[in-house]
Amino acid sequence: MSFSETNVIRLNAGDNVLVLVQGGKKGETVSSGGQQVTLSGDVPGGHKVASAAVPKGGLIIKYGHPIGVATRDIAPGDHVHEHNVATRLDPSQELPAWRPHQPPRLDAAPIPGTFPGYRRPNGRPGVRNDLWLIPLVGCVNGELRAVVREWKKPDWIDDVKVLEHPFGCSQLGGDLAMTADLLAGLAQHPNAAGALLVGLGCENLQVPLMLERTGENPRIRSLVLQTEGEEKVVPLLEELADAAPRKREPFPLSELCVGVKCGGSDGYSGLTANPLVGCFSNRLAASGGTVVATEIPEMFGAEDVVAERIASREVHEDFIRLIRWFRDYFVRYGQPIYENPAPGNRRGGITTLEEKSLGAVEKAGNAPVTHVLKYGQPIQPGGGVQITFAPGNDLVSCSALTASGAQILLFTTGRGTPFGSVVPCVKISTNSPLAEKHPNWIDFDAGTLLSGQTWEAATDRLADLVLRVAGGERVAHEKKLSGEITIFRDGVTV
User: Fold this and answer.
1) Nearest to 197 by CA among 171, 219, 169, 172
2) I need a labelling partner for 222 at 20 to 30 A (CA). Which of 41, 248, 315, 326 fits?
């Protein structure tokens, strides 16, 4: 990637498009690597122009990979976007076959030092000392909200959260199982000093079904309101609070798990914030820590890039099975598999799903992919990059990352969003105007890379912020007491 010429970025020497950082006007000349082109029309910031002629049917190359096919002849200097480019992806397209290989070598410096966390009985540290009330059915949300409003938490508890959702009743089969899997993963999360599972009593998602998934856990209690009464909620919370640790202690970076996610992407996402998070991911993996990624439909078109990082045949097969599941999911509901990018993505300069996917997978860096996880399944030993089941939807995927054990989320955005998860969700803007416009949403500005900051300095700055957040510094959404979950649905409602 070169930032040597103002306003122009060529991501790979083999690319036939340039990205205009600030945009340009018709008749202006832009250059990269000694090559000059004259703009044939106005081009918005973050959008692409052709650096060479591309005939109709020719490939558009960005990131060194095809991102689409020209639907008409494209001349040098032409704006390259959905008016003259189409996706090459097709549901029948073959997925990468397994071949014995070694993933590219990870060449990154470990993050120095430790982070202060709360020790849990299973050894995994939390970066928050919360109590989580987890409804097993939406009917009890209001009752639990009322308890939290009235109960005064002890000083050593950071927050008391009701993980509200509308499900748990009238669900059947696999759909019910997915709700149980996600809630069980959340109940075991290290940021929760204690979790209270609260059922009503007549719902499909019964307490015994949940306890089968969580097993014996000293940090989990359960209650059924119809039979045991709502007056028992506070005593159980007090019991969990009394058992919680009072202070932090140092932990190695190998105990840190960070989830990576992008939402409201724009043309700068694959230029600044996503690759910057990838640089951090490499350093965390080099420290023995874990990066967990998801957004499976936003890996469509970049499957080969991910597969190159998988050394195990078993993990490769798990990955391909996951891609196929989501392909079949779209087909089963009669929806086009490649109905992406979203309107906001397109306005920001992303043309095809291939382009979006190639930019999105950069967040996980290039460390080996060591495990593919089921929905709600906790991360496995071995560190590296682990991929968990979830779609691209922001709230659904962030909830899945959390259920797999991410203590902190890094969320890149080019359009901006105020939402927060139930764990610290660090919002990283792809461009500086967004950070300036929404300082109450954005925690970190990656747009400084476009104005001369080096990758090393920006990565150090991001690593410093992550360690401060791990040590208790609150991010923007936490200051507003914002945080929620959303559960993936795939079934009927009775």
Assistant:
1) 219
2) 248
